[in-house]
Specification:
The protein is an alpha/beta fold. The protein has 9 helices and 9 strands.
Length: 191
């Protein structure tokens, strides 16, 4: 079985990724994320050059690398994506809630795999978020693009939409907040 995991530059810039991979005796697929959301919530800054150097250092282990996105700033996100690509990195572009729809259309014309981000603050408005996601998926379908959902493991959303991949830190909520979510198989949700 292949061990698939996402890790963020923000938290793992000094981690020996080979040690993590070596802990598992089988094949691994590493999804690298800049950790821009985590950094922003903690008042930290991620420098493009530092992220690019880290991607270069671990290029033989990383299967997928997300761009250095800036939530709420599609122009800087695009500049970062283009800069990383110019450095030889093949990165996954990111489209955020609140960004102009033309940005998504452009990304879907140029890429077959795009990440959707900025959704975490909108999870309380599940209907509004679902409307936004449906519009994203309609645009993607026109171009044959698939999506990764950053911070998106809500069962009802994943069951309703054909995400190619998704992640969230929900699994660690017990250690972070002293709560232990349990999966209720009959109701198909966490309690």
């Amino acid at each position: 079985m292949t061990f698939r995991f996402l890790l963020s530059f923000h938290y793992h810039r000094a981690t020996d990724l080979q040690e993590i991979v070596d802990l598992y005796s089988g094949p691994c697929r590493v999804f690298a994320d800049s950790g821009a959301f985590s950094a922003a919530t903690q008042g930290a800054e991620i420098k493009l050059g530092d992220y690019a150097a880290w991607l270069t250092e671990w290029k033989d282990l990383i299967t997928v690398a997300a761009t250095l996105d800036v939530i709420g700033d599609p122009k800087t996100t695009r500049r970062n994506t283009e800069a990383l690509e110019a450095m030889g990195h093949r990165v996954l572009p990111v489209f955020h809630t609140g960004s102009p729809w033309e940005v998504l259309d452009d990304l879907c014309q140029r890429y077959t795999y795009v990440a959707l981000g900025g959704m975490v603050p909108y999870t309380a408005d599940s209907r509004g978020l679902m409307r936004w996601l449906i519009r994203c998926f309609r645009t993607a379908r026109e171009h044959g693009t698939v999506f990764h959902g950053f911070g998106q493991t809500r069962t009802e959303i994943l069951a309703a939409l054909p995400f190619y991949s998704a992640d969230s830190s929900t699994w660690s909520v017990g250690s972070r907040y002293g709560r232990l979510p349990l999966w209720d198989r009959r109701r198909a949700r966490f309690v």
